[in-house]
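In these records, each integer encodes one residue's backbone shape. Here is one protein:

___
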Amino acid sequence: MQKIYITGANGFIGHNLVEYLSKKYEIYALLRNGTLPSFNLKKNITIVYGDLLNKDSLTKSIPQDCVVIHLAANPYDPILSYKVNVGGTRNLVEASLKKHIKHFINISSQSTKIRKKGVYANTKIESDKIVESSGLNYTILKPSLVYGPGNKGLFSKIKAAISLIPFVPIFGSGKTLFNPLHVDDLNILIEKIINDKSAFNKTYDIGSKNKISYNTFYLLTLRYLKKNAKLVHIPVFVGVFMGKIMTKFMKTPIFYVDNVLGSTQESNCNPKEILTKYKFSPLKIKDGMEKIFKPKGINTAIVGLGKMSLIHTPILETFKEVNIVALIDPVPVMYPSLKSLGTDANYYSSFKKAIKKENINAVFVLSPNFTHFDILKTALDNNIHVFSEKPLTINPSQIEYLSKIETKSIIRVGYTLIFNRVFLHLKKIIENKELGNIESFKATFYHSEVLKEKKGWMFTKNLSGGGVLMNPGPHLFSLINLLFGKPNKVIGKI
């Protein structure tokens, strides 16, 4: 299997590329020490830790005879940009020469072609020159604006901006033309180049066939985001000044000088050569937007942003068939934490409000027991599938009511222990009568508890259901049902 080494693997383009190429290639994803991967881990993805400023770490981490795809860059800090974009590229090239790599693909920028350049553009020009004079088999790609889904993409930044201010700032007239490229199309083109010797020692512009203006792009984005924010044009000199201030005082600026310069000058991106070479037609902007904002799959809402949401949400994010579209809780305290973990979904204070705004196919109910019934009733009435934390309801009459609702919904309850390999093996032992004929049994469930005053809804019977419905109690009954079948009668005594 071809080995591919990717720098900047945690960035927007990087993590998309890692996941795409890992289907066919053995990936070595370079991350900085102390960082966690933003992509889904698979058996043919190896995380390697290193630093572009440390040549030895690169030499150790680059596999022999691989393909290197260089994405890592610093776009705003004047000093760090030179160190990373120029010095880092030089270190990577020298390490690549030692490892006799097959192909060095350098992801450059359209900003290298504009008239008035900022720090980032100038350092990328020097980076390109280092690659061109390296003696390696190289290809330099200069993408136009790359867009796509996810919390690291442009759209999440727009959403964040208009949640703070009721408008979208556009530098200059907004009439500058560019060739927006969906990240999936960039991935496809990079893959075509990987083993193509005819692409050696070439530089290509990459973008879609059709140019659009920033005004058109942002208006289209707002339409798909279902936001009524206005476009406000900011003079270029004001944008440059603000960019300098943000770069000086913010660790991660909202925007920087190169953003302003790049969006107000034509780069004359011409992707015709590479698109003709590979007979490839990138998505038109409207099709790309449709792919992002109306994805195929299961649109899922999560109700209850407590401790369990921090467990379920990241797991759901690993399934490409699942689109988390709504995070719901009366109190939005945990919403920023879930956003920081990579969940790009809208916040709502109630499930009923969410279904009015979002096309929801399924809901995860992680809220307190006493809230389940109303949420379940709403879900079943709207043919929305349900996964509910146990117990499903706080009394039998609620289940009886729900069972009479005509619906296409499927309900599953979070009895996770019935999938545990230990209990499944025990079930086989019992079925094979390896323990003989079992006449009676005693079931006990031990559960860790914090030794403090017991208060709150969990310890209030009419809110939690009380007794065996509290905390882990239902798990014991689910295991009894798994191992011995449904009881004919349940008798309780306190």
Notes: The chain is about 40% helix and 15% strand. Residues 418-484 form one domain.
